[in-house]
Amino acid sequence: MTNILPSYVRGSWFTPTDTSAAVDVRDASTGEVVTRVTSKGIDLAAALDYARTVGQDSLGALTFHQRAVLLKQMALVLTDHKPELYALSSRTGATKVDSWVDIDGGIGVLFTYSSKGRRELPNAKVYADGPVEQLSKDGSFIARHIYSRLPGVAVQINAFNFPVWGALEKFAPAFLAGVPTLVKPATPSGYLAEAFVRILADSGLLPAGSLQLVSGSVPTLFDDVRLGDLVAFTGSASTAEKLRASESVQTGGVRFTNETDSINASVLGPDAVAGTPEFDAFVKQVVTEMTVKAGQKCTSIRRAIVPRTAMDAVIAAVQQRIDQRIVLGDPRAEGVTMGPLASVEQRSEVLRQVARLQAAGGELVVGSTDVPAVVHADGTVAPAPDGAFVPPLLLRFDSEADAVHEVEAFGPVSSVLGYDTLDEAIALVRRGGGSLVTSIATHDPEVAVALLTGISAFNGRVLFLDRDDARTSTGHGSPLPQLVHGGPGRAGGGEELGGIRAVLHHMQRTAIQGSPEMLTAITGIWHQGAAAQVGGRHPFRKSLAELKLGDQVVSASRTVSLHDIEQFAEFTGDTFYAHMNEEAAAANPFFPGRVAHGYLLVSWAAGLFVDPEPGPVLANSGLENLRFITPVSPGDSIRVALTAKQITPRETDEYGEVRWDAVLTNQKDELVASYDVLTLVAKS
User: Fold this and answer.
1) pLDDT recorded at residue 254
2) Ranges of the chain with pLDDT below 50
3) DSSP state, 637?
4) CB–CB of 153/55 below 8 Å?
């Protein structure tokens, strides 16, 4: 008897004993039963409470950097187990390329968020957003915005097409934010999600309660979530609307984000005629998006919008490339480049939607809806009635039809539409009602600008494809961890990925007001007006373990002479008139006459505050937020106050980064310049 797929809840594996409601999950190529799935007997409310308590406690004890290091370690463990994941993935209908997109893509998300977390977030538990707002003249009352993690659980409901990437691209930013995850994979491919969760659970890397998996349905989910929780859904627009309408979302404060099916487009520019690199790149991309994952991607091209005069050439080129490149069959067979859909039910649904497109006027110009002959695992070629195979299908629309902008056949299906003007092309893209992505193949900047101006508000991402980037482009259908994945309108109105943006989606932004001392304590960032420790040992003589926020050195003064200015100009070659021509400088409304170079002052400041002997300070790694405020004339003097502003140990190195607040003032105590100095400092 086929095994029941287990769930991972409350820190252990659970296999239902009541299998009366279990459903069979079959191999997409052969129809053989792979596993059976039911969630009968799972206490979902208890699982959510476990995340809110145990998961919150374990993740809350860690800083951003500590969580980021764990993400990298998880990625390395999954990398070691890729062969077994690939073997399972083939049963979902995925070819090696498809599995690479899903499995390696998901692992890549973990690596990316680990790297970005350590580079772009503090080694702390609170993230400061934006500059300080001064609320009082004397600086005793200030404000700024911070992000703190949500106190609940991130419930992630995923689609069948990407059981690994779809889960990890949601899990990684939630984990980095410090919010525990409960994953509900789609049933047809849930056994692959179960496999990667089991690998992570066995690794010992998961903090208690940080990741749970429910195999099967979750009918009471929206009765059990509450304020502080969030639900991220990937799937159909119709299902998303039903979930969004639940009381817990409408009035209960549960955050709900969704990424849904969208009628994405690719536009061939009028300059991209047959024979140009842009035309070839466009055709290659259309075929790729029809055939990778058998077209089962939320980012696939559903509408190829081309100049009306180019329709025949595009169709012929698509047919030729499919004939040359695409071999349909069992992914385990040698030479197969396109596998089946995820299930026979999905095959029926795709063919039903194709029939709707045909009824609306679409002419099938590439492929056939008849049962295809396919390559079997043993190398024979014959129909596979129990497999979910559909060949690449391209329809042509020569007349206006609403259906092509509304009906999505979620498979290897695309449609060609013609346009005469760029305004018509823009209107066609917009009729999709909001998309995840539109790509534009053109080498004409004016065409690119015109199209972007007309369609950007209707898309989450726009890709420009031309001869300069065709070889290196990641492609129309590839969401990247660094860029937002989502789109307006029909695409769901959500936003996933996008680097640190996705981490902040799992946090609450709060405006905090108070004294500099209080905001320093809350944020771990020293603020002007907070206590400073002056005197004693120079801060540059202190290791990271010894250095404290507010440790400060105040320099002696140094007077600027005209000779200093001229010497600096001669040495650097910066002979800008404000430094060398008294009459011209005096005519400038910003200067009283000749003034010192700003970079002369910054250089002098370094000389005034530095302690030159070898010690814990290893290197100067940068300078940020430099502002010149008051000009310095010959005869003026400057001094600098340097204060330890933020201390960021690196989890995997013997040093960390210290951000210093540098303030230059003149003999009248007027602010001359301010900036942040970044140094690398040994931990001990």
Assistant:
1) 86
2) 1
3) E
4) yes
What pLDDT does 481 receive? 87
CA angle 56, 60, 64 (to 5 degrees): 130
Task: Measure the CA–CA gap between 189 and 26, rounded to whole angstroms.
Answer: 9
Q: Residue 407 is encoded by which pair of tokens?
A: 């009906």
Dist CA 560 CA 632 (whole Å): 8
One-letter amino acid at 331 equals: P
Integer Cα distance of 347 and 93 in angstroms: 12
pLDDT at residue 18, as a whole number: 85
Q: Which tokens in the block code for residue 112?
A: 């990316």
Give the three-state DSSP class for 343: coil
Q: Measured between alpha carbons, how far is 445 from 461 in angstroms, rounded to an integer?
A: 18
Phi, psi of 209 (to 5 degrees): 80, 0
Q: What are phi and psi of 396, to 5 degrees?
A: -115, 130
Assigned token pair, 59: 């993740």
pTM value is 0.88
Would you call 259 a catalytic residue per the annotation? Answer: yes
pLDDT at 558: 94
Pairing of strands 637-649, 507-514: unpaired
Q: Which residues contact 494 (CB under 8 A, 6 or more apart)?
A: 232, 257, 258, 259, 486
User: What is the SS3 string spanning 442-510?
Assistant: CCCHHHHHHHHHHHHHHEEEEEEECCCCCCCCCCCCCCCCCCEECCCHHHCCCCEECCHHHHHCCEEEE
- Rg (alpha carbons) of the chain, rounded to whole number: 30
Beta bridge partners of 14: 7
Amino acid 300: pLDDT:
93
Give the model's pLDDT for residue 255: 86
Let me know: does 414 contact 286? Beta carbons within 8 Å. Answer: yes
The active-site residue, picked from 169, 259, 278, 408, is 259
CA 6 – CA 211 distance, rounded (Å):
15
The residue whose two tokens read 């500590």 is 66
What pLDDT is stored for residue 482 in this prediction? 87
Indicate the residue type of 18. D
DSSP H/E element including 182? strand 181-184
632 neighbors 666 (Cβ within 8 angstroms): yes
For the record, the structure tokens of 568 come out as 């600096």
Contacts of residue 80, defined as CB under 8 A and 6 or more positions apart, other chains included, come to none
* 448 phi and psi angles, rounded to 5 deg: -60, -45
Residue in the structure block whose two tokens are 């990925």: 497
What is the per-residue pLDDT for 668? 93
Pairing of the two strands 211-213 and 181-184: parallel
Beta partners for residue 306, in sequence order: 418
User: Helix/strand/coil (H, E, C) string of 573-632?
Assistant: CCCCHHHHCHHHHHHCCCCCCCCCCHHHHHHHHHHHHCCCCCCCEEEEEEEEEEEECCCC
Candidate list 169, 194, 289, 298, residue with the active-site label:
298
Catalytic-residue membership of 120: no
Backbone φ, ψ for residue 416 (5° rounding): -105, 130
Q: Residue 288 in contact with residue 266, Cβ under 8 Å?
A: no
